[in-house]
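Reviewers asked in the last cycle whether our approach scales beyond single polypeptides. To address this, we selected a multi-component target totalling 213 residues and predicted its structure end to end. The input consisted of the following lines:
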Amino acid sequence: MSLQPASVRAPLIFKRLKRAYPDAHCELDYASPYQLLAATILSAQCTDKRVNLVTPALFERYPNAESLAMADPREVEELIKPTGFFRNKTKSLLGMAGGLLDRFGSSVPDRMEDLVTLPGVGRKTANVILGTAFDKPAGVVVDTHVGRVSRRLGLTRLSDPVKVESVLMKLFPQKHWTLLSHLLIFHGRRVCVARRPRCAECVLNDLCPSSEV
DNA sequence: ATCCCGAGGG
DNA sequence: CCCTCTGGAT
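The resulting structure, written as structure tokens, was:
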């Protein structure tokens, strides 16, 4: 039983995921673009749940870019240690805050080309800020979940996140890009998990070349 | 290609 | 024990 091409399955995949996860959204806790930017930097190779554990204290102590830019790195390291990569992430946070202060009037820019000039901010993080904090047209956020799920679904065989993003942008209409990211992330966390995917409970198993059902 | 890093699940 | 978690910089 052969599967339809990706271009035919893509709209069905979107529809099914939307029905399965009607509440799909960014699960990082934040109250401003500044907070989302900091939380997203911390989310690298770390569950969002763990990020949410450390950000309340972090945001209370450093409520804005000014205070974070002048922070004692050792103090920031202690606050964010459970998220891993704490030395790199501290450098990114302080550098990011300094960049906002020096070059963007202490506020978070809303353009891709500006965002990626900030330390610790790559294309993935910038897409999160654009799409979620500013509700602006953004590319597809390709993180570890989106990449893995896309490959298992046979939407692409590529591993380079930038190329995967390009493929997904051709398969799905622009108005769906931000929601699609959240849907694929929810699905990757709950069902299409890295270790032992739960194909039996997957709403896409008849559309998936990797299904083991 | 490699490094950074802690914590939870299987 | 080994793998993985909303990556980015060198």
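Residues 44-47, 50, 81-89, 195-196 of chain A lie near DNA strand B (CB under 10 Å from a C1'). We regard this as preliminary and will revisit it once experimental data from Aim 1 are available.
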